[in-house]
Amino acid sequence: MTLANLPPLVTVFGGSGFIGRHVVRTLAKRGYRIRVAVRRPDLAGFLQPLGNVGQISFAQANLRYRQSIDKAVEDADYVVNCVGLLLENGRNTFDAVQEFGARAIAEASRAAGAKLTHISAIGADANSASSYARTKGRAEAAVQSILPDAVILRPSVVFGNEDEFFNKFARMAQTMPFLPLIGGGKTKFQPVYVEDVAEAVAKSVDGALKPGAIYELGGQEVMTFRDCLEAVLAATYRERPFVSLPFPIASLIGKISSMVPLIKPALTADQVTLLKKDNVVSESAEKNGLTLAAMGITPVRVSSVLPTYMVHYRAHGQFAKTGKAA
Questions:
Q1: Architecture of domain 3-160+190-222+279-300 in CATH?
Q2: Between 20 and 30 A from 19 (CA), which of 79, 151, 196, 270?
Q3: Exposed, middle or buried, 221 (CB in 10 Å: 0-12/13-18/19+)?
Q4: Whole-angstrom Cα distance, residue 40 to residue 60?
Q5: Partners of residue 60 on adjacent β-strands
């Protein structure tokens, strides 16, 4: 095979992360050459078996250092940005990673002549009171100004084996006598399966999505926060009472827990701020055909996947009998 006949090269930033690894696998199945851009390539070797020999390579890249980004996108036909933060940690702040990093990737992609798909989030808003949502919104604006044809994907809460949503509450149910209903548990989510998000990314790389469009990715079910906790308890065969936690109290707890050094907080004040708004696909996206269904993707239901990775939270694991344990 000559160089001219080689499959397109796709650079995936954050390819070793939760969403990124599924994106890499989906692209590999389509036959693309993939360059995984991560801070620690030595820790990303588990991705290589997802493709054929030589199909997946690695590049060291840190979003705070532009030169490493330029090198990672060199000769790439397409770039996918999967990088995002749930918690700030040291120099890895929302501003540095989600805003500055996204801008740098877009600039490098433009310089390399590569197309770009940027993964954002439902609720992204440059004027949001939440640092997470605000930097996501500013990142979108930067990407659009630099590469107007870039495709932006906004998923709701993403679920799957390694998620940090359902797994978090399953761990809490293992150790806590109750589960907190923040803000009364009324916030709405539209959980979307990670494989469906990866398929949407692959379709964008295929050129099947509208250039310059912002798609909102949600699953089949709209679930309240309480519904999500009840689904976790049902899948883990546990019974826990719910305790309503008003937003001001939850925010105070988040602020205090974030101040404890060397401990990953279960809740932050910024996350509480996010919970004040529903996280579902907008009517505008539905009307304009900017959803998974419009892509030809039938979203996977939470109930069909959640029990498969909640099994190890059950009192007796896979040998647990159907029912609920105290």
A1: 3-Layer(aba) Sandwich (3.40)
A2: 270
A3: middle
A4: 6
A5: 38
- Packed helices 302-310 and 166-175: angle between N→C axes, nearest 10 degrees: 50
| Calculated CA dihedral for residues 251, 255, 256, 259, nearest 10 degrees | 160
Q: Exposed, middle or buried: residue 63 (CB in 10 Å: 0-12, 13-18, 19+)?
A: buried
Strands (E), 87-140: 115-119
pLDDT tens-place values along the chain, 326 residues long: 545 678 999 999 999 999 999 999 999 999 999 999 999 999 999 999 999 999 999 999 999 889 999 999 999 999 999 999 888 887 889 999 999 999 999 999 999 999 999 999 999 999 999 999 999 999 999 999 999 999 999 999 999 999 999 999 999 999 999 999 999 999 999 999 999 999 999 999 999 999 999 999 999 999 999 999 999 999 999 999 999 999 999 999 988 888 776 577 888 999 999 999 999 999 999 999 999 999 999 999 999 999 999 999 998 776 666 655 55
Q: Confirm if 154 and 216 have CB atoms less than 8 A apart.
A: yes
Is there a contact between 271 and 254 (Cβ–Cβ < 8 Å)? Answer: yes
Backbone angles phi, psi at 24, to 5 degrees: -60, -45
96's tokens: 């540095």
Where helices occur in 176-288 by DSSP H, the ranges are 194-206, 225-236, 247-258, 269-274, 283-287
Q: Where are the domains of the chain?
A: 3-160+190-222+279-300
